[in-house]
Specification:
single chain; mainly alpha
Length: 168
C-alpha cells in the first residue's frame, strides 16, 4: 500500500517537479532513504494513535507532521550532523508542501506543525546523544502537544509553540 501511494504521488508530478525531487534525493541519497522510512513510520503511528483524524486536518494530522519531522531528524542524525540533518529535513518537508499544494491555511498548518516537530527534536538533542534517540521518546510528548493543539481559522493567527489544527 505504501509503495502504491508513493508511485501515485510521483505520477501526479510535472516533469519539472519530478526533477526537483531527483535533485533533492541526489543531494543526499541516504537521507532520502531514511526520510522515506520516517514517512512510512509516521503514517503508521499516526494511524494507530489517531485512526479517525490522521488523514484529515485534525489532531492526527498535526501529530503526524510533527512526528514525521522528529523521525527524519532522528534517523538522519544517526549518520550525519544535527545541522545538516535539520537543513535537509526542512528542505524536504518544505518541498513536500510545494509539490503537493494544499489550500493556504492547510499549508500554513502543515509547515507550522513540521516546525514544531523539528523544534522538539532539536530541544531534546542536548540532553540525549543523537545515537540513542528512539521513536518512543517523541510519542507521549507529541500526544500531549496534540491535546493542546490550537484550532485555527485565520491565516494571520500565530499558534506559537502549539500544534495547529483546522478541525477537531
Amino acid at each position: 500500500m505504501v509503495y502504491r501511494v508513493l508511485i501515485n504521488s510521483l505520477r501526479q508530478l510535472s516533469f519539472a517537479k519530478f526533477l526537483q525531487v531527483l535533485r533533492l534525493v541526489g543531494s543526499h541519497p541516504l537521507f532520502a532513504l531514511l526520510a522515506f522510512h520516517a514517512t512510512v513510520r509516521a503514517f503508521v503511528l499516526a494511524k494507530q494513535h489517531y485512526p479517525l483524524s490522521h488523514s484529515t486536518d485534525g489532531p492526527g494530522n498535526a501529530f503526524r507532521h510533527a512526528l514525521w519531522c522528529c523521525l527524519i531528524l532522528m534517523y538522519c542524525c544517526k549518520v550525519s550532523s544535527p545541522r545538516k540533518s535539520l537543513e535537509w529535513c526542512k528542505r524536504m518537508t518544505d518541498m513536500h508542501e510545494e509539490l503537493f499544494p494544499n489550500q493556504p491555511l492547510q499549508k500554513k498548518m502543515d509547515l507550522h506543525n513540521n516546525k514544531i516537530g523539528m523544534n522538539l527534536f532539536m530541544s531534546m538533542l542536548p540532553g540525549i546523544h543523537r545515537q540513542f534517540f528512539e521513536t518512543s521518546f517523541f510519542i507521549d510528548l507529541l500526544i500531549e502537544k496534540t491535546k493542546q493543539a490550537v484550532l485555527v481559522s485565520d491565516l494571520n493567527f500565530d499558534a506559537g509553540e502549539h500544534l495547529m489544527i483546522l478541525e477537531e
